[in-house]
Amino acid sequence: MSASQTSEVPTLLVKIFGKDRPGITAGLFDTLAAYAVDVVDIEQVVTRGRIVLCALVTEPSAGTEGELRATVHGWADSLKLQAEIISGTGDNRPRGVGRSHVTVLGHPLTAESTAAIAATITATGGNIDRVFRLAKYPVTAVEFAVSGTETSALRTALATEAAEIGVDVAVVSAGLHRRAQRLIVMDVDSTLIQDEVIELFAAHAGCEDKVAEVTAAAMRGELDFEQSLHARVALLAGLDASVVEKVRAEVRLTPGARTLIRTLKRLGYQVGVVSGGFTQVTDDLKVRLGLDFASANTLEIVDGKLTGRVTGEIVDRAGKARLLRRFATEAGVPLAQTVAIGDGANDLDMLNAAGLGVAFNAKPVVREAADAAVNVPFLDTVLYLLGITREEVEAADCVLV
User: Fold this and answer.
1) Which residues fall within 8 angstroms of residue 43, CB to CB, at 6 or more apart?
2) Active-site residue 187, yes or no?
3) Which one, of 110, 271, 125, 255, lies nearest residue 184 by Cα?
4) Which sign, positive or negative, has the C-alpha torsion 86, 34, 19, 392?
5) Could you give the C-alpha distances from 139 to 5, 163, 375, in angstroms and in order?
6) Which member of 187, 195, 316, 380 is catalytic?
7) How far apart are CA 37 and CA 104, in angstroms?
8) Backbone phi and psi for residue 388, each to the nearest 5 degrees, phi listed first
9) pTM of the entire structure?
């Protein structure tokens, strides 16, 4: 029966709730089958062993509705379940224009913060059509399916509210494109890894303080990225090239990094990194993690020593965005179907160019500009923004490949 055909016909909403056990869904529909009704809609949720099963069905033939009600209640009683049957007309009301997925991450997720998010959705004119949990650890992640309000307006309102109540909220428009994002590009320092690579090199050169001074000057706006890069790399002049292997061994991946990349690769995504750091580290990460793309600055090495210079194209703020576009072209992926992840101001152009820009434990200016912000120290939480559940991740990990 088509939507137009069910819009005005009498229907019954059959609700079953109680302790879950195998066979409840089959039992309900076996009971209803005796009355030759058509199924219009089904929803089922199980929470902590309690089931709520709703079936919207067409009204049975004349004179049998009372018998249907009695039979369903009798069946439910026999299983110590509760039943409620409500008469009405037609199907669910049409969802409002404008559909979004709102992902909320809490560590923990409190009732107070959930109430604030729900109230903000309502205040923007949105309606919550469905809610389900994506993950229970390492954070609690839930997703709200929202209709009736434009994604951009909802994102702006929720970003303000999330900052005040201390939870992470990501808002993306609904549609096939969400599942079609096939290229992820990440920053490296303080995103994919916990370290700043230049500082690891500086520690071996004994010039951490001087490097920190240059970094601070750049943050004050006294130097641009390229100037600060050259100034810091110059301090490494004369360092033996064997230090590269030592630095590679010292690099610490961000918690969840391997899970994120492994899961994305299993889903057919292509994954790349861009860095203001050095190819001597990113090339190693590319091999270790099975990345598809990697690009960074290159430390010049002559006669087994670092010269204090870099060679080739400089990867700066604009360079990262340029590389995102290049990777997308090589991967055959439209830019609108890319995801970029970063933490610093030099990631902003890349985050803005991507279909979805995610600020990961980022500076305030980056969080404000990004489409989504994650402020927990687990990189694999980005999977939840893509609608991938923890159960799906764990199930994939159990499959022997």
Assistant:
1) 52, 53, 54
2) yes
3) 271
4) negative
5) 44, 17, 11
6) 187
7) 39
8) -90, 130
9) 0.85
Contact 318, 224 (CB under 8 A): no
- Return the bridge partners of 19, or none: 50
Whole-number Å distance between alpha carbons of 123 and 90:
28
The one-letter amino acid code at 270 reads: Q
**pLDDT classification of 262: cutoffs 50, 70, 90:** very high
For residues 11 and 55, what is the distance between their CA atoms, to the nearest angstrom?
10
What tens digit of pLDDT does each residue of 283-300 get?
A: 999 999 999 999 999 999
Amino acid (one-letter) located at 389: T
At residue 60, the pLDDT reads 95
Q: How far is CA 241 from CA 1, 228, 260, 312, in A?
A: 73, 22, 32, 18
Tens of pLDDT along 201-237? 999 999 999 998 998 787 676 888 899 999 999 999 9
Task: Answer yes or no: are the C-beta atoms of 109 and 165 closer than 8 Å.
Answer: no
Q: What's CA 396's distance to the chain center, in Å?
A: 17
319 vs 362: CA distance, rounded Å: 19
Terminal Cα distance for the chain, rounded: 43
| Residue in 20, 129, 168, 189 annotated catalytic | 189
**To the nearest 10°, the Cα dihedral for 246, 260, 342, 369?**
-170
Over residues 267-287, the pLDDT tens digits come to 899 999 999 999 999 999 999
Assigned token pair, 227: 């100037």
Longest dimension (CA), the chain: 96
